[in-house]
TrEMBL record:
Keywords: Glycosidase, Hydrolase, Signal. The keyword Signal applies. InterPro entries: Glyco_hydro_43, Glyco_hydro_beta-prop_sf. This is Glycoside hydrolase family 43 protein. One of its GO terms (molecular function) is hydrolase activity, hydrolyzing O-glycosyl compounds. Residues 1-17 form the signal peptide. SUPFAM superfamilies: Arabinanase/levansucrase/invertase (SSF75005). CDD domains: GH43_LbAraf43-like (cd18820). Belongs to the glycosyl hydrolase 43 family. GO terms for biological process: carbohydrate metabolic process. It comes from Aulographum hederae CBS 113979.
C-alpha cells in the first residue's frame, strides 16, 4: 500500500515538473483549440499569425490569431464555397501551401449524397495567406482526398489518399500548382493496426529533421477506420537521398499516436513551426466518443513534437484536456 502511494506520488511529481506544462511567466494554452468541426486540422505560422483550417463539409475557411489560445476566438473568412454539382459538397481537409511565394489552397470536394466522387481541387491565393483565393481547377480525375504538398530534396510533390483496391497513400511530382506527373503508391494498409474497421491510409503530413547533417523526411498518416477507437497515426521514414516515388524507400512504423487520456481516435495531423522557428508542433483531431467518429464531433488538439537523439520524431499520445501546455516559443 505504502509502496503504491509512493509510486503515485513520484508519478505526480514527474507530471508536475514536465516541461510540457506551463510554468509561471510563460504563456500557456489548453486543448481543444476547436471544439466542433475541428476535423482534419491544419496550421501554418506566417508573418505574425497562426493560420488555421479544418473540415466544415460545406465550405473552406481560413482563420487566424497571434497565439494558439487565440485560435479559440479567431478572425475567420470563408474562402471557398461552391454550388457546382461536382464540388459543392463534402468539403474536406483544406490546407494552404506557399509555392514560389504565392499561397495555394488544396481541398477535397465532391457531389451531394456520395463520397465516391471526392476529388482534389486547388485555389490560388496571394502573397499572404489572408488574401482571397480564386478557383484554379481539379488536380486529378481520380478519387483523391486529403492532399498535401511537400518539398523533398528541392522537388515538390502532391501526396494524397488514393483508392488502390483499398484506401492507400499516393504520391506524384507536382509540376505546377494544378498539375501532377506520374502517380505511385507509397503505402497500403496491411498491418493489423491499419485495418481495424476498414483498411485505411489517409491524412498524410510531412516533416523533415536534420541531425549531424543527416536530413531525414518523415510522413505521418492516419490508419484504420475513423469510426473506431483504433484510428491512429502511423509513420513512414524516408532516408536522405532515397527516391520518394518508390514505395520501398519509405520504412513504416507505428502506431506513433493512439487513443489516450479520454481522447479517442486521434488522427489527421499536421505539422507547424513555432513563431521563432525553433520548435516543431503537431495539430490533430480526436473525439471523446469511445467508438471514434468520422463526423464534426471531433475537436482539434495541439501538442509539441519531441526529437529523439537518433533524429526520429516523438509525437506522444494525446494529453488529458485538463493540461495547460506552454505556448510555442516566440509567441507574443
Ligand atoms: C476579398 O473578398 C471579399 C468578399 O468577397 C471582398 O469584399 C474583398 O473586396 C476581396 N478583396 C480583394 C482584395 O479582392
Ligand atoms: C532537409 O530536407 C528538407 C526536404 O528536402 C528541406 O526542406 C530542408 O531544408 C532540409 N534541411 C536541412 C537542414 O538541410
Ligand atoms: C539518419 O537518420 C535516420 C532517422 O533517424 C536514421 O534511421 C539513419 O540511420 C540515419 N542515417 C545515418 C547515416 O546516420
Amino acid at each position: 500500500m505504502f509502496r503504491l502511494s509512493l509510486f503515485f506520488l513520484l508519478c505526480a511529481l514527474l507530471v508536475a515538473s514536465s516541461p510540457l506544462d506551463s510554468s509561471a511567466g510563460a504563456a500557456g494554452f489548453t486543448n481543444p483549440i476547436r471544439k466542433v468541426d475541428g476535423s482534419d486540422p491544419f496550421i501554418v505560422w506566417h508573418d505574425g499569425y497562426y493560420y488555421f483550417l479544418s473540415t466544415t463539409w460545406t465550405d473552406a475557411r481560413v482563420s487566424r490569431a497571434t497565439t494558439i489560445e487565440g485560435l479559440k476566438n479567431p478572425e475567420t473568412k470563408v474562402v471557398y464555397k461552391s454550388t457546382s454539382r461536382d464540388r459543392c459538397c463534402n468539403v474536406w481537409a483544406p490546407e494552404i501551401h506557399s509555392i514560389d511565394g504565392q499561397w495555394y489552397l488544396y481541398l477535397t470536394a465532391g457531389r451531394d449524397g456520395t463520397t465516391d466522387l471526392q476529388r482534389t481541387y486547388v485555389l490560388r491565393g496571394g502573397t499572404s495567406p489572408w488574401d482571397n483565393y480564386t478557383f484554379l481547377g481539379r488536380v486529378l480525375n481520380d478519387w483523391a482526398i486529403d492532399s498535401t504538398v511537400a518539398t523533398i530534396a528541392d522537388k515538390r510533390y502532391l501526396i494524397y489518399s488514393c483508392m488502390s483496391v483499398v484506401q492507400s497513400l499516393c504520391i506524384a511530382p507536382l509540376l505546377t500548382p494544378a498539375t501532377i506527373g506520374a502517380v505511385s503508391v507509397i503505402s497500403k494498409p496491411t498491418l493489423p493496426w491499419e485495418t481495424v474497421g476498414a483498411a485505411v491510409n489517409e491524412g498524410a503530413a510531412v516533416i523533415s529533421h536534420s541531425v549531424g547533417g543527416n536530413n531525414t523526411t518523415f510522413l505521418t498518416y492516419s490508419a484504420s477506420y475513423c469510426w473506431t477507437s483504433s484510428y491512429s497515426l502511423g509513420l513512414l521514414t524516408l532516408a536522405e537521398g532515397a527516391d520518394p516515388l518508390q514505395m520501398r524507400s519509405w520504412k513504416k512504423s507505428g502506431p506513433v499516436m493512439r487513443t489516450a487520456n479520454g481522447n479517442y481516435a486521434p488522427g489527421h495531423n499536421g505539422f507547424f513551426k513555432s513563431p521563432d522557428g525553433t520548435q516543431d508542433w503537431n495539430v490533430f483531431h480526436a473525439t471523446s466518443n469511445r467508438e471514434g467518429t468520422c463526423d464534426g464531433n471531433r475537436y482539434t488538439m495541439v501538442s509539441p513534437v519531441a526529437w529523439a537523439a537518433d533524429g526520429s520524431p516523438s509525437l506522444g499520445n494525446p494529453l488529458a484536456l485538463s493540461r495547460t501546455l506552454t505556448s510555442p516559443s516566440g509567441e507574443k
